[in-house]
Protein 1
Amino acid sequence: MRVQADLDHLDRNKLTFKLQAILAATKYPVSSVADILGIAAETIWRWAVAYNENGIEGLYPKPKRPKPSKLTLAQKLKYLSGWIQEKQHKARMSIGHWSDYVIQSKTKLIHITL
């Protein structure tokens, strides 16, 4: 049923909870609503601003930015080089599985020097 699917979609993103919090904050002090719901008042304010600016779309979670790698380029290359050498060694030992053959054929083309 489409209605149930829409409700499930809203609940998955906690949109009904956010909308109820915003609505309650229009009738009661935001701090009281926040205390009852167990969230920060700033969160309700942030939801209200997002809703006023973008409607229901503003209440969907925002995609998170990827975190920068903690490894340096040299560390990445060293790890990758070790992994390739290990796969080359295993591929030389036995080519029994198709992925061993693929790795062996690909690694012959890759030469990394550190």
Protein 2
Amino acid sequence: MVSGAPVQTAAAAVRFVASDGWWLHVDVDVLDPVAFPAQGLPDVPDEPGGLTIDQLRAALKAATGSGGCVGMSVAIYDPDQDPDGACAHTVVDFIADALQSRVCRSRSRTVCDCSDL
């Protein structure tokens, strides 16, 4: 179960796909609706439980830091459930964290500087 070991699960998933490039897709409805209420579909009851924001952040950083991630998409954010925009800021923050931990695979360098993100 991901919530029990998010970093280890993310690393195992990357090892499983082990290709020259893979795409990371995140549905934010994996998050606990108590911690992140702006997730899910309109007029559909939220599932209780789920990952904490810190667990998702750790899993994303582990996955993107393992190399091979060529792109990322995020879905199931519902702005109607985020009147003050706080959850939107959280999404931007965890995307930025995931991208900053990405490892470049080039001959001239092993770690990206943030200017090329």
Protein 3
Amino acid sequence: MEPDARLRHLDLSGGASHGALGLDDSAMYQVLHRLESRGFVKAEWGVTDNNRNARYYRLTTLGRAHLRTSIDTCCATAGR
């Protein structure tokens, strides 16, 4: 599995994290807006399986590079 495959379907509302992130909706959207303004994610409108409008976010090339650097820094700090 390629390194970014685990991140492709991250559910910030708690699905992938099993609630460990503990983000409420307003905090989550503030973070996503900040990431979008920095060019780390790109937002697109789409339709859910329930035929509702939804905004989908994808990591950009810049966001992926920043994520890799952050993970490497974290792992180096943790001694891995």
